[in-house]
């Protein structure tokens, strides 16, 4: 129980990778603030699974792309535990389309949720972590942010943006005992990846040296590693968890 006494805030914790990250951090003893956009029921189910490990939880419905909602969420989190030791920027969406057919609103929404939401949460968390003189900020990027992907210029831009944001903030906070890292998943079996066409799935699978998709637990394991106090000398890094896809 290496994270006992710590509090983690995980955005998009109602299902998929976010849920698994919450459960993994709870196994290590961290109390959890579980964010979701609309699926409060899903967040409550995540909370119940975390509480089985004896930790405290708080579910907060908030759109990360809205600065006011993010501010209110961190204020509630502060009331709940007085501190945020670990921030996991996991909330994300896709609105895939080839560039020439991509609507401006679909471009903008993907940037707003994936990238601007990460910016708002980083800003709120950094303020608290600077006061605490301790913190771990971990953002979920993607192999697509490193390699690009046809039909995902909006998503790839947001996920590449997260990497630039991570490295820049890591430099700002390195001397303050706050680390800032990204995890770049490859193909992970969740509702998000399930929505992709069979042809696209086959194309993805053919590019994975390991020969099979990953699971949310694979990502949770990497996040948990970076969240440990012992990972204090690792900052500004992008940890690919992709079966070798981005090599
Ligand atoms: P998912 O199953 O679709 O879950 C997405 C989560 O994000 C949900 O909890 C959702 O909450 C939340 N969310 C969406 N919009 C939000 C908003 N505006 N404010 C707050 N929360 C919001 O996706 P996933 O596959 O677990 O993906 C999690 C992260 O990993 C994403 O950042 C994704 O881009 C990244 N990733 C996934 C894969 C993959 O293959 N699955 C690969 C690379 C990277 P609600 O349930 O309330 O809508």
Written description of the protein model:
This protein has a seven-stranded parallel β-sheet, with helices on both faces. It has a single domain, classed as NAD(P)-binding Rossmann-like Domain (Rossmann fold), CATH 3.40.50.720. The chain is globular, with a radius of gyration of 17 Å. Helix 1 packs across helix 9 and helix 4 packs parallel to helix 6. It is of the alpha/beta class. Helix 2 links the parallel strand 2 and strand 3. NADP nicotinamide-adenine-dinucleotide phosphate binds next to helix 1, strand 2 and helix 7.
Q: TL;DR of this structure?
A:
With 247 residues, the chain is α/β, with parallel strands linked by helices. It has helices spanning 16-27, 40-51, 67-81, 104-132, 143-147, 153-173, 191-194, 198-206, 216-227, and strands at 7-10, 31-36, 57-61, 86-89, 135-140, 178-185, 238-241. Helices cover 48% and strands 15% of the residues.
Name the bound molecules.
NADP nicotinamide-adenine-dinucleotide phosphate
Strand order in space, largest sheet? 3-2-1-4-5-6-7
Instruction: Find the count of extended strands (DSSP E, 2+ residues).
Output: 7
Intertermini distance: 33 Å
Average pLDDT confidence is 97
CATH superfamily heading: NAD(P)-binding Rossmann-like Domain
What are the salient characteristics of this protein?
about 50% helix, globular, binds NADP nicotinamide-adenine-dinucleotide phosphate, alpha/beta, seven-stranded parallel β-sheet, Rossmann fold, about 250 residues
